[in-house]
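Input protein
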Amino acid sequence: MLTRRYRLVEQIATGGMSAIWRAFDQSLHRTVAIKVLDGCMSDHGGRDLIRREARATARLIHPDAIEVYDYGETVTDRGRLAAYVVMRLLDGRPLSERIDEGPLPWREAATIGLTVAKVLAAAHQRGIVHRDVTAENVLLTLEGPKLLDFGIAAFVGEQVDQRLADYGTPPYVAPERLTGAAAHPAVDVYALGVLIFEMLTGAPPYPETTWEAVESACRTGPPPVPADVPGLPPEISELCAGCLAHEPGARPSAQHVADVLTAALREPETPAGPSPWARRARIVTVAAAVLTSWSALLLWLQPDFSAPVVAAFDSYPPATPMPSAGGPSTPGEPGPRETGGAASRASAEPVADRPERERSQPTVTVTAPAPQAVTPPEAGKPKKFSAGDAGPAVRRSPRAAPAATALPSLDQAVGRFNAALRAGESTGDIRPDVALDLHQVLRNTLRDSSVDPVQGLDDVRGKVATRFEEGALSAGARTELEQELRLISTILQKTA
């Protein structure tokens, strides 16, 4: 119990000089996170550091930064003075865990980078330098990415003392920090460049992972750029290299990074050429359509050698005498039954109303028997028609077999999957970053001609199941996405 108000429930993380607890605020009846400074550190200036963190974080008001509720000091059971910071408790997982699964699609990486850049721009505007932007300190929550841990933050222009200089994550540390330079926003931009590079490639731009290796590294030449990232716009590659510039003055501002990423995300995706599987599906669909058209044309031109095939059937005639075959029906009354096929449509349409190209095609003359007087039936009594008294007989054409066209094309099936993602995102059933991730994974699976896409779909299904277990999509959204994936798999198997 802290100050008779906060009841510590469980320890959820530990750091170099503090521990983070899940706690319950008994005054406001809400669950919070509390960072409690180690008792030993409190006696060696640690209280000043944690107080600085609380003040810096409270000074920054941004929806994607951690919120500070309270700061206090209390006496422990051992008689030591311990400082603590009360913060909002966020549920999610670190970005580092997502990167461990493999490189992120560029749009997902750009979306996360954009959020972090906006938080840093707001912090820099208020004179705060974070100084510890890492994948561990970005939390992926249901509300989106959140930037955490301002534990070693400093104010712009402040000469950082040795206590703060010793903290940080080596792969993200800008070169000028090793020389003891004053706190400057450029160090955050450098770390942001490392973060974007790592999200796109799965590894940081430089191999050094310890302070000794970073200090002894001699980096010459231009900064590295992300390579072999499918669909990555060149402006993002250039932006990443700019953030990693050796000279702080050559790096862009955090706001400029946000502007470039925003512009890149607004651009529509450049459609790449379809994979061999997609091309094969398209060829089959076109061939089936051409075959169906030729079949209809041949049936239309074929003379009627067989006897009429109009079986007797019951029909309720209109109140007025029935018009001649091919004549228009009175609105609201049932006209002649549609017999299907191109021949029936051509015979039912007046020649004068047909397009010129149709009138120029050969026509078929049907010789009808002499017209006979038709006695209107009794009201309300159905009349029975047969081949002898129904006027010119029109032979029914057999319908073309729909086997080749019953399934949608591969592009249409993929479009249905993407539409389900957009619908789920708009209704809140699918988290936006998850919808983007699934879209990119399916697209990359179908583009990779070296991998059987039917087998690749198993990975997509596995990712859908994993996201469902994480609570990132609802059960209904999962069912719909798996149904669309089964349809895509069926199309691929039939066109293989």
The radius of gyration is 36 Å. The longest strand covers residues 6-14. Residues 225 and 241 are 6 Å apart (CA to CA).
